[in-house]
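Late entry, written up from scratch paper. The run itself happened at the end of the previous shift, but nothing got recorded in the book at the time, so transcribing now.
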Amino acid sequence: MGDRGCVKEATANVSAPVVLGLDFGGSKIAAAVADLAGKRIAETTVTTDPSLGARWNLDHGLTAARVMLDDVAPGCELAAVGACTFGIPAAHGVGLAPAILGWEELALGDELAVMFDGSAVRVATDVKAAAAAEASSGALVGHDPAIYVNLGTGLAVAIVCGGQVVSGVNGAAGEIGYNLRQLSDLDFDEPGRVVLEEVVSGMGLSASGELLTGRAMTAAEVFAGEATDPRLAKVMEQFVRELCFHLANLAVALDPSRIAVGGGMVRSWERLEAPIRHALEATVPFPPDLVVGAYPFDAPLVGALNLALAAAKGEGEACHGGFALGGHPGLTSRDGIGRDWQAGPTKALEEQSPADRAAR
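Output as recorded:
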């Protein structure tokens, strides 16, 4: 997928304050501008190149966002920035973010605060922000507990329980990409251990396809190629069976009302729906409803805009495995899942949450 230029959703001149949403993904970076009522004004998408490392990709995305802002909202106050990213964002880095080399060392909040000086900044994990969007206005409204599954470059889920997205003590709840796959994985000294995300994800499919065919392949090409290439058909069969296995176990453990699925692989939902539905109905004592999300391809971006809108209105606190920058210096604790970071625009606080320590 190539870069997509700025797409304007509204043609009227913008003069009031606006907010910016950013979704940093493993294969693309999306940005959108909205007014304070939440109406989307414009959006843009650029493709990442993991081989060029974290700095190049971050600058590539931020430049596209700045160009869009200057185009559709010149001179307007940027009230807040909401950003979500793959991995677990903390003040000093992003944990569990192997998709782009060096991303784990990025102090993403500080980078955004420098680029958008004077604007409040909130940062969250992409899948959790997506789940929050689906729970507040999408496919998971009225369903509790519920599960949001992201099938994209990586693999993760988010759990909605008690009206909240569960973060976990380190912000890493739902990171099933790190699930063990077989009993031998319990041998912690096993150097060849392969976790679930290395197989059941977009990057896993791409790697498997390249290994078998000797040429670079996208996940979409593996999906398309299974009809004519028995090798790719075998890869797809293993992929689907492992995905079903882990989703069924998750449903047994959580007893959700509904599972909503989003991410790039939803474009191949006709291949995935039947086996997932069968696995849930055949193995889960109380099978949950299974649907495609209301925002199948941009739920994280919707979640990022929601973060920015809440910050602009002074509502809520940092959540979804993330933190906030901006406002008055100080540190306030929040609901047992880390810290609400409220530092000056370029100064990180010295006290660290468990996620911060893990990211360093």
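The domain at 4-128+298-359 is CATH 3.30.420.40 (Nucleotidyltransferase; domain 5).
(Scratch paper discarded after transcription.)
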